[in-house]
Queue: 3 jobs
Job 1
Amino acid sequence: MAATDLAATRRQLLQSGQAGKLDAPGLRQVLVDLHEFWLTSKGAELGVRPQSGYAIVAVGGLGRGELLPFSDLDLILLHDGMPHDEVAEVADGLWYPLWDANIALDHSVRTVPQALQVAAEDVSAAMGLLEARHIAGDEDLSNLLISGVRQQWRTEIRDRFPAVVSHAQDRWRRAGDIAHRAEPDLKNGRGGLRDVQLLGALAMAQLTDGMASLRPDSPGAGPQVAYARLLDIRTELHRIAGRPREQVRAQDADEIGAALRIGDRFDLARVISDAARTISYSIDVGLRTAGNALPRRGLAKLRRSPIRRPLDEGVVEHNGEIVLARNAIPSKDPGLILRVASASARTGLPISASTLSRLADYAPELREPWPAEALSDLLVLLGAGHHMVDPIEALDRTGLWGRLLPEWGAVRDLPPRDAIHTWTVDRHLVETAAHAGSMTTRVSRPDLLVLGALLHDIGKGRGADHSIVGADLAIQIGNRFGLWPQDVTVLSEMVRHHLLLPSIATRRDLDDPATAEFVAETLGYNRALLELLSALAEADSLATGPGVWGEWKASLINDLVRRAFRLIDGDELARPDALTSEQLALAEAGGFSVDIEQADGPHTFRITMVAPDATGLLSKMAGVLSLNGLRSHSATVQSHAGSAVNTFVVVPLFGSPPEAGLIRQQLMAAVDGKIDVLARLDARETESPIPTIGSVSAPGAATSAGSTDPAVDGAGHPKNAVPALFAVAPPRVLWVHHDAEATGPDPGPDPGEVILELRTDDRLGLLSRVSSVIERHGAQVRWAKVTTLGSTVVDTFCLHLADDGEAARTALADDVLAVCPPPQPRSDDDGNGPDAYGGTARSGVPIS
């Protein structure tokens, strides 16, 4: 067959494909068979036969056996040191007919040593030769090259791994992330065909098995299934475009979707996103696994195995990954999934693929309503800012996120209907929650803020008004989460009205009093709901795309909210519940006592501590609990008959709390001055076993330019850049105004008393440190109500100040903020939040 006949047959095959006679896989196979036949026949004509010292070897698409309609032919004419003139004659006889027939050709002529030398010097060439396949001629010669390249690859991978990762990162920077591009590059983008081929190269180096641990029922099912989907789409793209195009253009999408029986361009975009995210997850796991599997040399061989560091009940860090503790039993611990995810978000460490697989296989579904511990772990995850994105993506790719939120399936990979949106709907929800995580100290209910951000568009993809559908779904989800009925109502109203403020602020006359009155009336004159919607409007805009949130839009919404706040009365103050008869009896008995009982969940305990009231007692009580690894979820501070009666709801870092008698002895020692609680807290925090975000890299990874740390984003930038347990939102101190003439069930603090509210991210011993500051300023704590909502603390202290002047308040607030964890720097934190228009939880005046 002449080369011109080859070209004519190719055109006929493409026409058959367009007529529906050949599907995409069939077309690729026929093209492979056709070109192999021509090359074999032409090679035999030129003397390229068995034992001839010549061989034709294919790489690229023909080498993989998946030749696309307009792919180049990537061929190597291999020879065993033949004379130059003879080799040139054979090469010309092979190449020129293809050029004359206008068949794209990428060719080279090599001996085996020459080809191995090229593979040793060029990463891209090496990975191409790993896919080499014998086509015609001397098969022993081809096998010598193929086996030699693979052996060389395995031998040198330790030194070449940094270059392999750098090569991939450069490609991602140029081509972008397929899942979130309007016109994705199916071949070179992150999550594309090249990434699966990279997984294959790592598998040949015996660093991975080439497959991520994904269940058959997981979204995308696995990288090979996702690869086949993208390959079919790329095949149709070539056929429809009539050229070797790699980017799916909007004008071709409907035709491609129809040819593959996928649907319209939106359905096609959803399939592409799903496949790309599956491959992206797989390449993250593959690079991380490969980095950990690199062989050690020299003194590194003598290094001790990585230590398993406890992070939470049943959760440890090992070798830079989140794994399960040896005694963890997933089948008996439904909350383990969320503890693993929250630990990953807090520390910035990735979740081990084997851990995800084990959880997917054995972890049971949470009973409804969820226990308080599970909801708390979810809030910690959502409150971690952008560090939550990777854990949620890992859960989603392995089917675990859908198990927690079955409603997620309707929005997963759902493409936006307008060009202003950067992300798919599900990723937009996650991004909105991530932005909301930087605003948690602006609102009195940070838990509802991040939940509302996660769910505000959950009603999309269901063929009706997404705000109304989403509001109904929010009730269903809120009840499943175990929220209080009144909180479920607020969450539903957030979803229903999440577009209210942007719509009214940009379309109505704000100087018209009826505008603000309409907003207040629509929201039922609910101050907390208005505050939440204001923060949600900003988070939603920031997560939509660049330029959606700006000074103009912020000023309009802030002005509208300020006007609406004036029409709404303040909320009631948070006060502790009355003491029980048992607590009153303990207080009247005097002395020291500690009582520990099981609380709402298997890992939650309620500790009641009674001691003679004295200055500094609260700081010492809270410090003793922190020193025993007990994290306070809430606390109530009161007194009676000269005794302090303080109740703490705590969760141990792992295991069970110490015996009550031991805590009592430690408390007495702290009161007697035998234990310096604050000094020990400082030392414990300095020596904390929890790793810092950005401090963990794979063994053998590079530490300079071209780092091989697989924890990079789609553009190759590090994902983990801030220390663990650092706040996402800036801490705030608010002084709550008290109207001396107020009446009703909660008139406010007594004369001479003030209310201080602290909103901040949590840290080790925070309550002890804050209490110590208050006591150092000579203020008396009349009562306190402490609540930890996820990773955000909302502490309310009723104080009697020795000096209640403005300077004294400012000094106290400054010192309180000094012991709070510093915020993560954020460019969008420009003050355009509730504080900008004077809104706070209870008419508070922000000091900082």
Note: The two ends are 82 Å apart (CA to CA).
Job 2
Amino acid sequence: MRKVSLRNLGAHKLRLFLTVLAVVLGTAFVTGSFVFTDTLKKTFDQIFTGDSQGVDVRVVAENQASLGVPLDLADQIATLPDVRDSIKYAGGQVILIKDGSAVQTGGAPSQGQPYFPPEAAIGQPIEMVSGEPPSREGEVIINTSGMERAGLEVGDEVDVLVPNSGTVTVTVTGTYDLPVDVGGFIGVQFIEQQALELFSDGDHVTRLDLAAAEGVSQDELRDQVAALVPDGFEVLSGSEARDNQQNELEQNLSFINYFLLAFGAIALVVGTFIIYNTFAMIVAQRLREMALLRAIGASRKQISRSVIFEALVVGIIGSVLGLAAGVGIAYGLRIVLDATGLGLPGGALALEPRTVIVALAVGILVTIVSAYAPARRASRIPPVAAMREENSSASDSTRARTLIGAVIGVPALALLIWGTEYTGQAGALRVGIGAGLLILAVLLATPGLSKPAIGALGVLSKPFGATGKLARTNAIRNPRRTAATAFALTLGLTLVTVIGVLGNSAKVSIDDLIDQGVEADYVLSGPQMTGVPGVVAPAVERVRGVEKAAALKIAPGFIDGQNVTGTSLVGGVDGVLEVPMIDGSSDLDGRSVMLDEATSERFGLAIGDTASIERPSRDGTVDAEVIGIFERNSLTAAMVLSDEAMDALIPAFVQTTIFVMVVAEDGTDPAGLRESIEQAVEPFVVVQVMDREEFKNSQAQQINLILSLLYALLALAVVIAVLGIINTLALSVVERRREIGMLRAVGMHRKQVRRTIYIESALIAVFGAALGVALGVLFGWAFVETLRDEGLRILAVPWGQVVLMLVGSAIVGVLAALWPANRAARTKPLEAIADL
């Protein structure tokens, strides 16, 4: 039987290719995601190892929002007898400005750092490539790749923008090399004293690195230092510091990994329908062959095992090819991201044994599971019944499946609707479970739905006369096959529609929120990583015609040990933002705070109560009076702090400004004022001046960027679905070879045969697309309802996109049918009729 199976695969090479291709696409995406993230992790591990090389103990503040490690504490620690050497590190983000333009890093860090000469460095000192180290204020050295990216040479002058200190002009005295190529990374090293002035308040450093005296272990020195350090600081051994950095990286990369794996899973699920459909059709076409094998002594187990063995062979071939394709995808993804300027570290691709095992296991298991049901069904058909001609196209009743689908679908729909009564994670979880069950219900009921649905769509085929009627009949003759073909497209377009509804609703909701909530005339923004430099707001407020330039800052804090994100608007929200108040006042003065309704209920805080807000550095609390309760919105976070409360919570030097809201004086010429503001922020280069319409467009662009990425990844599922239609039609042509021959014999022309296949494919594609769009709109509405507290208050269905998808599906159906239709048209009547 194994020999029969292998020969059968070899005799139908096209069928084998189409089935293998479905497995390849799914496993390639899973493999590519693992290889890509493993490569990044491996390279970053090397970077972290170099960063902490020679460090035996590291002292850092528990929270990055604090000023860092006090210098007096650092000096005290450095005097411990078991400390051989110490380094006080003060560094932070910078932006390199060349010829009036910011040097783009493509998302890689651009860091200002202190330079330590070899005699003062802990571990391996940096390797100078050219020039001399900095020796005085105003001199810097920059890594070689950063110099090349900026187009600089030794001796050039360049401006360096430090977000909280302003812009300094420096001279490049030399270049140095990094142990690992870090893509677009730029490292600007100043003398130690200037780094302290630029990146701290002068009394703190970012971290303290220690080297142990000879014979003292890392753990011993760590314990000594920990006994001296007060609460609010972490004391880590060198190995613990490296582990922390690596764990943080893994958490950051896990999002990318889960994101890519989710779409790999979608591709596999869609591919599963194609593989299942393919094996179901293969079994249907081979019923007579299997009946003959049963008649000459083959047992039921041998028949089912032969089909599963074929699936095993297909799974192995597809998984191996998918593994190779996944490595290619990871390589191509890195090339594409590098070409777009995204600064990623270089290094060889990492193919871990885990990746190989997962890819092979997933691909093989999916294929075998997909083939199990057809194999079992084939083994249960009696030999004599299978030899009858009509069995080659017979189909089991769909009544039972439709009934089961209805039994699952009704409570699933109820759960989905019930989930919309909740918001946040609770609502999303209920809606997600309901949506999953409803998809399962639709999958079971699709064969029963296909007959009435395609019957109704048959109106579209009426203009084509007899060929249109024949196409409609062919589409509903085998409901299981039609359903499996259509559902692959249904699943893909369901996801596309859900994302479209969420994205469009987000854009419309944000537009409405800005129209209703932003009273400022102009909004100033900066890079996402750094925000707006802290010195911008005071500079703009000095511009003639500006009544107010309020910096919108983010304020992380804790209430009762639970994280609560807040914002602060310098000078208060009045006249700048329209905050929808429920109770109390928005007149923030003294040490006061406003809370949104959910946060006030969560902590039992009312007007007049005192909120004890724990500082991010965990070195005390800030007591602020609750003066107002407002509706939750996307312009402010859960709490809005007064200026005094903000400064008490987070030191001014490390506060991050998200936007600067500019209010014009009455009677000021808008065009003239904008020009004056642009001149004021010109030295800061990275600051963008926007009116309200431009601000809305900028927010929409961010959503469009995310949507484009999601659509690009979901396109894989749609491509697989299209391949499934091609696969099904090609096999259907083989299955109906004698029928097509008969039609040709009684006078049907080749172009009529092609037209019949085209129309049949278009009807199946439109049926699957319509079902997917309907589910997508329903799920999109439900998820928008659960996100109403996050600012998505307006449901906006992209009807233009919906119509485009339906029309596009009909076109895709015709295109998918081109090759199968031409193959059918070439059928020779007499040979087909004589074929047994």
Note: The mean pLDDT is 82.
Job 3
Amino acid sequence: MILLKANDQLKRVFLSLIKTLGVNVIWNHIFVITNNTLILPGKVRSLFFNYDTKQLYTNLIDLTIEESQITEIINDELLVNTLNMTLYAFGKWGTINGLKVEKDYSQLNQLFKSILKEVHIEPSFRDDNFRFYKNKILISYEDVIHDILTLSEPISDSSEKEASSDVSFPSNQDTTESENTSEQTIGNRWKSPTLDEDLDDEYKLGLWHNMKWVKRTLSFAKTEHIEDKNTTRLGNSFYPVDYLCPSCKEKLFISLYPVGREFPIETEEGKVYLARAYTCNHCNCFYTPRPDKLLQEGDIYILEFEEDRIAYEDYLELLGNAGERCANYKFNEFEAQHNRRNEKTPETLEELFQHIDTASEEELNSLEEKMISGFYPKTAVEVYYPKLVKKRLQKNAVQHTNKPFAKEKPNKTKKEKLTQKTETPQKSSRAINLHQDFSKKTPDELKYLLSELEGGDEETSSAIQEIKNQLNNKLKEKYDAHIAVVTRMSPKQLTDLKSKIESEQTLPDSEKEPYLKEINKILFEEKEKSLKQKAEACKGKSYHEIERVVHEINESDVPQSVKQPLLEFLTKQKKITGEKEVEYLISTLPPQLNKKQFEQFLSKLHQYKDVDITPYEKQLEQRRSLVEQQEINSFIARANKNNRDSLFQLYNDLKEQGFSKKNLQPFLDKIHNKIYEMDQIAIQKICPSITDMTFEEGLEAIKKIENGVFLPELKINALEMLDKRLTKLKADECDQLVRKLKREMNPYIKDNPKFHFYEARKAMRGDLEDEEKAFFDKVLNGYASAHGQYEYPVFVSDSSRFSNGKEGFVLTPDHIFYNSLFHSGIIPILEIDTIEEKTGLINKGIFVEKINGERIKLPLSLPSKEWKWFSKVLGDFIDYLQEKPQSRNISYLAKEKHEKKCCYRCGYIYTDGDICPKCGSKANQ
């Protein structure tokens, strides 16, 4: 438990909050933090904030506070911001009436992350809880405060400002107390983000990625062997390896996956389970060999993230979380191979090095790459890798002809020899007379002789057969005698006899069968007799006693022909008895049925499964409904209904009483409608005639409505907030698409006055040059006027004679808008099949071929020698646009909460957690 004394700033904020909530708490200006709960202790009642359950409530608390245990908060901005996080978390959850937090969960997570980054704590704020992680281990809110208090170095003024530069928590200027504000919206002092803000600098959403690994053939050069790989490891379970990236020649890093826990990926050839994955931290890409291949062979899969560093690091973390510093003797495997699971134990390095002298150069190369690639444990590699290098140097020095590995059986260990020795059959130390008269022996003696002679030579085989014959005769005589008196045996004796016969190994099954058949016959007769007696005895017994007998008959192993008539008889008895008991139960109902009694009687009725209780249920519900309506009326009659606050309190109190929705809803609707009428009248008084208001009067009216206590459906800023959020997301996406298209065109063009790239954020801020702005306005208000509200152009190709934007085509993420002297129209991106150039005598140019076969020529001012590269770049870019996931659509973005999450980066659909299990994206809150 941690005790903190609030400074002046925190006092003002939390006192204002207490007044806003209208709770009866006289706070003593102390914070108590215990586990995941923040407590504001008071003289009688205290205010509780529970991070696990999202509950905000008051309660009595018996707490002894000693002055020496209290830590005073003095100029600690980090601690102040961490305590203030409580307001924004519970405000976003909607547990603080009137507190409006406009940011979504992903923005709040980034904000909280920027606050706690100094203590290396990762916050996870969701709609159902608020958790904290340190080094990927779950910690409590109390641990967070403890880490802040135990920082080794105090925070300087400059660092405080830097740490809090992105944070706009309530300050002493933000929070004031006023007599006429009972539910003041603290959250409306949080300014919603504009296009100029970059609250997600640390985590950019980026463009989408197809997470399918593609086949390539590349050449991987080796570098010098790394002696101490831990000193230069990349992190996330990736360690340096002796290969260079084929693109940038930087060192590669490797992560290995334990046998049986290989990581699945999607490739062009289907699902593959990774035993090892390589990455280049410079190129933002991943490599892995194809199944049954080594990286050195160059036959690999690759996954590239280009300049999207955030996406690369997320996937690096996802792969690293599943990886370990271990060995895996397997190659990568296709799903079918992986499901077959060959558990054959591989040869160890120690065994292989026993035959190293006869190994060929090719086999030495393969062995070396396996050692580098984690096929063998690190400790073994550290011992044998220098030996391998030395052996290769010796072979090269003498130019010795390589020989293949010689497969020899390893020498047997002492343990194996001892096992073999103990498994050798030992002859009995005592001689047995093979010619004695076995007919005089008892069955037990004969069994003993068999065990002694088992595994003997030919001389004993005839004796063994004689003993078996005599044993069978003895056993048959024994069991014939038992069967003769079987009718006088008890059920237990019969069961024991049956088990004994079944366990006789020397007696053939054909000879056991008559005995077992006779015993089973007697047992079934006894069981049938017993069950019939129990069924007859059920007459006059209770419903539940009959139910137990029915269960016993169903579980018994008597034939179905015996069970069926007994069950039919008992079913009739159950129904007759059940109807009588239900009628009696209903007759004992009290006239005034409270909720607990109603539930108890209903539960009892449901126990009678063979009785039609529908009429009784209706009778019970009708009686309870009348009583409940009387209770609701009495509750309302006792309440104060004079003003809006009283009605609102009555509305909430009624919902907490546990009344059925059917009876309660009409009363709630009436109260809601009354509050709605009051709020409408109040708003009309604030702004009786909008058209007659001056600008200043309009601002004042908006402020009053925002700060006033009104029903949520009468607040008009929801669409505005949504518009800001969608505008920012789609503008960011447009700018990133522009950068991608520019990057793909750069190898072919440097500057073309007919090509225009639309920078959405720059346009929103009004930073476009006048000439460029006029050009885009003409295009977007002309032949591309049908574009959606959040559909921004990426690229415009102007084909007009005077470069005025009248003709050409506009490429957006969803459509191509085109216009020329002879034709114009709109082509949906998803309907495009191919982009190709034609250089014939007629109909030459760049053509769009739609899926339905229709061909459309794009208006384009570009020399014919450049058509080929342009059609290739444009076609590839449209293919990429067609991969856009559902999560980028406006209909999906407009919703803040989703039952099934569609990853914003790769489109993978999942339900649990906030991190995409396919690409690692953390932008799917």
Note: Residues 152-202, 400-409, 417-430, 690-695 have pLDDT under 50 and may be disordered.
